[in-house]
Amino acid sequence: MEMIVFFEDKDFQGKSYECKGDSVDLHSYIHRCNSVKIEGGWWVMFERSNFTGYQYIIGPGEYNDFHHWMGFNDCVRSCRIIKNAKGPCKLKLFDRPNFDGQSLEMTENMKSFQENWPRREVQSCKVLEGSWVFFEHPNFSGRQYLLEKGEYRHPSVWGALKATVGSIRRIMEL
């Protein structure tokens, strides 16, 4: 069963809210989020309502402090379940917008994107199978961007202001 439990305070203390599906506005249930328990599924939490703002992608487990999910602060205002977290993963990257230029196909995580790509930029991509996370920096750190199955003609389509990618991770059920 897919479920995420939000807690207003660290170490699973304070007011809590159990969520079993997508929620466009968590503010009516909790005012801040300092810890989270995920009892099933992979989730993307957003800093703002309506699935906007910084994204935090987290899987099953307990996170007793917002720093443990790489949160910038205790503000979580919306969330949704990630689909396509089962089965194979396949991604095709392009160094120019609209699926043009050099391309790279991948099926595995890439801890340091620059080691395998002449540039640190991805201008467009196609998620052929599964779901993936682009990280702003190497070693799966910095801002996160969820990319589910589909086509992304420009970085703004996946929510990025810049085309910089430092590392890439596929999302897989454990």
Automatic annotation (TrEMBL):
Gene3D superfamilies: Crystallins. GO terms for biological process: lens development in camera-type eye; visual perception. Keywords: Eye lens protein, Repeat. Residues 2-40, 41-83, 89-129, 130-172 form the Beta/gamma crystallin 'Greek key' domain. It comes from the Eukaryota. Coiled coil: none annotated. Pfam families: Crystall. One of its GO terms (molecular function) is structural constituent of eye lens. Belongs to the beta/gamma-crystallin family. Crystallins are the dominant structural components of the vertebrate eye lens. This is Gamma-crystallin S-like. It comes from Scomber scombrus (Atlantic mackerel).
